């Protein structure tokens, strides 16, 4: 299954904040949307899933496996979310309900889309907690979000997003709020799960160093426009736009070295 975004626009209160964004995500590809704060990358992701705020209007085209998503009724979009397209947000508190246990929330995401019993969903929740390397999964599924660390909450959010084995995962700056060590662990976890499940990935970040660890192709945004689109390896070796050059300077200033994903090359 492929994602095709063509001439996407987003207007908020009469102001255009995303203007003509175009990119494709072939089946199994890992594509990054990168840019500074306010570049339009997160709004692009929300537009794909039909999660824009009420005052926002989306135009252009977003086609998922040939099906147009712009203008699709909320009920039909809801069927796609979590089943065919999963999403992980920057702050897991956005995705996790503070008054429900972790296990119940993972199980609910399964029961919404699959005809399984409550007990089957509970066992699946434990299995998903195990898959994302949460410690003592049978115990941790009985805990509430506030009883988990930031990294554990993000692992739980990933488990929810992937529980139904979606074909596409959209990750909106999922490691920004984490310290460097936990950030590296979450990136490695996501990359291994995406590869093992054969999913496509749209990874959103402002950090080229982070992007190099997980994506093979990048779309660079500035002020709602695409300013460059190329394999990550090419951006690292010969960035063309001033925006990408600035992102590369910021990355190298952190004593970063290219990671495994950046050495793979571009997508076909």
UniProtKB/TrEMBL annotation:
PROSITE patterns: ABC_TRANSPORTER_1 (PS00211), ABC_TRANSPORTER_2 (PS50893). Pfam families: ABC_tran. GO terms for cellular component: plasma membrane. Signal peptide: none annotated. SUPFAM superfamilies: P-loop containing nucleoside triphosphate hydrolases (SSF52540). Its main location: membrane. It is a peripheral membrane protein. Residues 3-248 form the ABC transporter domain. Belongs to the ABC transporter superfamily. This is Peptide/nickel transport system ATP-binding protein.
């Amino acid at each position: 299954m492929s994602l095709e975004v063509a001439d996407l626009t987003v207007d908020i209160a009469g102001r255009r904040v995303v203007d003509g964004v175009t990119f494709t995500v072939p089946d199994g590809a890992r594509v990054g949307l990168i840019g500074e704060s306010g570049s339009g990358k997160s709004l692009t992701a929300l537009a794909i899933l039909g999660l824009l705020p009420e005052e926002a209007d989306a135009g252009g085209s977003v086609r998922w496996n040939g099906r147009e998503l712009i203008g699709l009724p909320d009920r039909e979009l809801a069927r796609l979310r979590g089943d065919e397209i999963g999403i992980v947000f920057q702050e897991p508190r956005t995705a996790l309900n503070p008054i429900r246990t972790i296990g119940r929330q993972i199980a609910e995401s399964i029961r919404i889309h699959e005809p399984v019993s409550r007990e089957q969903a509970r066992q699946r929740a434990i299995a998903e907690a195990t898959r994302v390397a949460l410690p003592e999964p049978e115990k941790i599924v009985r805990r509430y979000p506030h009883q988990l660390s930031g990294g554990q909450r993000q692992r739980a959010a990933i488990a929810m997003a992937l529980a139904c084995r979606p074909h596409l995962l959209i990750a909106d700056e999922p490691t920004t709020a984490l310290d460097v060590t936990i950030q590296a662990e979450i990136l490695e976890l996501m990359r291994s799960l995406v590869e093992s499940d054969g999913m496509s990935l749209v990874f959103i970040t402002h950090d080229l160093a982070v992007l190099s660890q997980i994506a093979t192709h990048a779309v660079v945004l500035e002020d709602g426009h695409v300013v460059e689109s190329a394999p990550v390896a090419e951006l690292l070796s010969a960035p063309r736009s001033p925006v990408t050059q600035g992102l590369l300077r910021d990355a190298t200033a952190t004593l970063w070295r290219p990671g495994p994903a950046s050495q793979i090359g571009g997508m076909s």
